[in-house]
Amino acid sequence: MDVTTQRPAAGDRFIDFELPDHNGNRRKLSELVGGDPGILQFYRGFWCPKDQAFFRGLVRLQDQVEVAYTRMISVSVDPPEVEAAFRAGIGARWTFLSDEPRELQSQLGLLETTDTVHRPYIPTVFTLYPDLRIHCAYNGYWFWGRPTNDELGADLRAISRAIRADWEAPTLPRRRGEGTA
C-alpha cells in the first residue's frame, strides 16, 4: 500500500507509527495494540459535536473492550494537553495520541479538506488484527458512516475468533458409559 496516494483499507497493514500520547510520551501503534485486537480511531477534535456524540458511545463500550483483551486508540491533531483534558472530561481510559504537526495525517491522506480552519482528520475508524492488518475501515465524514458499538463488537468478535486458538471452550472427555440409556 502506498500511503501517500491511497487511504488505508481493509486487508492493508497499518503503518506502525509513533506519536506522543495524552501525557506527552511517545508511543508506537504496535506497542499500544500489544498483541490484541484493536480499535484505531481518528477524530476531528474535542470541539466537534459529532465526535462528542461518538465518544459517548465509545465510553460505554470501554468496559467490554477492557475485559475482552482489546485495545482502543484515538488520534487527533489536538495537542497532548487538550487531549488529556478531553479524555478526562468524557471518562475515557484508553490512549489518545496527538498528531499536532499533522505529519501522519498527511501520510495517510486523512485531511478533512472542508474544514480549512482546524484542518482536522476525516473521522475514520479501523478495526485491527494484532499484526496491524485492517479488518474493517469506517469513513465517518457523515455521522452515519461511523461504526455502531454493535458493528465494532461484531468486528472484534471476528478478529478474536480468527486469532485465538482457544476460541472454543475446552470440553471434558466423555467417561465410559456416559450418555447411554
Briefly characterize the structure.
The protein is α/β, with parallel strands linked by helices. The chain has 5 helices and 7 strands; from the N terminus they run ββαβαβαβαββα.
Question: Can you walk me through this structure?
Answer:
The protein has 181 residues and is α/β, with parallel strands linked by helices. It has a single domain, classed as Glutaredoxin. Helix content is 31%, strand content 18%. It has five helices and seven strands. The protein has helices at 29-33, 49-67, 80-90, 103-108, 149-163, and strands spanning 18-20, 26-28, 38-42, 71-76, 95-98, 124-128, 134-139. The strands form two sheets. A five-stranded mixed sheet has the order 5-4-3-6-7. Strands 1-2 form a two-stranded antiparallel sheet. Helix 3 (80-90) links the parallel strand 4 (71-76) and strand 5 (95-98). The radius of gyration is 19 Å and the shape is elongated. The model is unreliable at 1-5 (pLDDT under 50).
Largest sheet: 5 strands, mixed
Structural class: alpha/beta
How many discrete domains?
Answer: 1
Task: Identify low-pLDDT runs.
Answer: 1-5
Q: What's the CATH topology name? A: Glutaredoxin
Strand order of the largest sheet: 5-4-3-6-7
State the total count of DSSP E strands: 7
Assembly type? single chain
Rg on CA atoms, Å: 19 Å
What distance lies between the first and last C-alpha atoms, to the nearest angstrom? 61 Å
CATH architecture descriptor name:
3-Layer(aba) Sandwich
* SSE ordering: EEHEHEHEHEEH
Report the sheet-strand fraction. 15-25%
Q: Give the helix proportion (percent range).
A: 25-40%
Instruction: Using the alpha-carbon principal axes, give the shape.
Output: elongated
CATH class: Alpha Beta
Average pLDDT, rounded to a whole number, is 93
CATH superfamily: Glutaredoxin
